[in-house]
């Protein structure tokens, strides 16, 4: 149980960049969860299952198109869209009928859906590990201060800000985005002016699930695709949403930065207990800011 002795500036920069690339995945998934939580007031515990489903669908789509660059890019587009379509069917077929029920009923429904999705994934893909290769242009690494940094991680660093910008534009500059924000504050008033709140909820739910599927598709080339990959992710996503501020998208970004960077730098500082660092950071934040770093929408 010794501290790492190779704390050089170049190693710190490398781990910092790795942490930022992990932050991208955490932010994309957490922002979807935060969006659903902020507008629908529902902690969607099945969000991690949709993330896992996105990874498996990305693998299957890429394989169906022969792998390689074409298969990867098609998988990156089609897998999140498939997850969004599935979520729309579930929301319109079942979920929308429960909006007038207590929040506990909705929570139990998402938990049941999580169990069902897990079994369906097992039936469709079995228990074996799967892997998806990045396209040739994103394979290999380049040098950062004399140390290698994966090209795919750089790709993730580019995708993250683009997703954040897209979400900002959607929620602040589009009509449906503004209506969704209004519904998060006062859904009764939105309904009173003649807007179908149920379809607003459907739109928000589908966007949130799309982001979960996108996160799964993006993470597929960086780790094994397997059942159980949703377990730790959903717990981390909820912690990120809590410390960022319930329903606050920028809070999700800030929480993802804290979680991703402390995790990555913890590996550099104290590898044996690196897993503890993000949770210590969460505890510290909640001690000083019990309601989260930014204003919650609740």
Structure commentary:
With 298 residues, this protein is an all-alpha fold. The chain has one domain (20-229). Helices cover 71% and strands 3% of the residues. It contains 11 helices and 2 strands. It has helices at 9-40, 47-64, 68-93, 103-125, 151-173, 175-185, 187-192, 197-219, 229-244, 249-269, 276-288, and strands spanning 141-144, 147-150. It has a two-stranded antiparallel sheet with strand order 1-2. The protein is globular, with a radius of gyration of 19 Å. The model has no long low-confidence stretch (mean pLDDT 87).
Short structural description:
The chain has 298 residues and is mainly α.
Number of β-strand runs: 2
* Helix-strand sequence: HHHHEEHHHHHHH
Given as residue ranges, the uncertain stretches (5+ residues, pLDDT < 50) are none
Record the strand order, biggest sheet. Answer: 1-2
Helical residue percent band? over 70%
Q: Return the domain count.
A: 1
Q: Beta-strand level of the residues, as a percent range?
A: under 5%
Average pLDDT score: 87
- Helical run tally: 11
What is the oligomer described by this structure?
single chain
List keywords for this structure.
two-stranded antiparallel ribbon; mainly alpha; 298 residues; 11 helices; 2 strands
SSE layout and pairing:
Blueprint: H1 9-40, H2 47-64, H3 68-93, H4 103-125, E1 141-144, E2 147-150, H5 151-173, H6 175-185, H7 187-192, H8 197-219, H9 229-244, H10 249-269, H11 276-288
Antiparallel strand pairs: 1-2
Helix pairs in contact: 1-5, 1-8, 1-9, 1-10, 2-3, 2-4, 2-8, 2-9, 3-8, 5-6, 6-8, 9-10, 10-11
């Amino acid at each position: 149980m010794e501290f790492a002795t190779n704390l050089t500036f170049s190693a710190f920069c490398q781990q910092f960049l790795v942490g930022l690339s992990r932050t991208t995945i955490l932010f994309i998934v957490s922002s979807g969860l935060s969006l659903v939580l902020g507008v629908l007031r529902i902690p969607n515990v099945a969000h991690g299952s949709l993330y896992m489903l996105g990874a498996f669908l990305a693998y299957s789509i890429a394989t169906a198109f022969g792998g390689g660059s074409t298969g990867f890019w098609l998988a990156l587009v089609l897998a999140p869209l498939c997850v969004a379509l599935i979520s729309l069917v579930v929301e319109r077929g079942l979920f929308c009928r429960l909006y007038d029920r207590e929040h506990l009923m909705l929570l139990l429904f998402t938990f049941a859906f999580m169990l069902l999705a897990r079994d369906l994934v097992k039936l469709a893909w079995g228990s074996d590990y799967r892997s998806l290769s990045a396209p040739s242009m994103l394979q290999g690494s380049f040098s950062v201060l004399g140390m290698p940094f994966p090209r795919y991680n750089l790709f993730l660093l580019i995708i993250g800000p683009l997703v954040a910008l897209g979400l900002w534009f959607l929620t602040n500059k589009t009509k449906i985005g503004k209506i969704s924000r209004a519904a998060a504050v006062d859904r009764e008033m939105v309904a009173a002016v003649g807007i179908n709140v149920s379809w607003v909820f459907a739109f928000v739910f589908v966007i949130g699930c799309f982001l979960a599927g996108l996160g799964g598709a993006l993470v597929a080339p960086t780790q094994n695709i397997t059942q159980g990959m949703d377990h730790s992710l959903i717990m981390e996503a909820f912690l990120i949403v809590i410390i960022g501020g319930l329903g606050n998208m920028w809070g999700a970004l800030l929480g993802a930065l804290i979680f991703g960077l402390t995790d990555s730098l913890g590996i550099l500082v104290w590898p044996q207990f690196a897993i503890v660092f993000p949770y210590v950071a969460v505890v510290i934040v909640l001690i000083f800011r019990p309601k989260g770093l930014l204003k919650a929408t609740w």
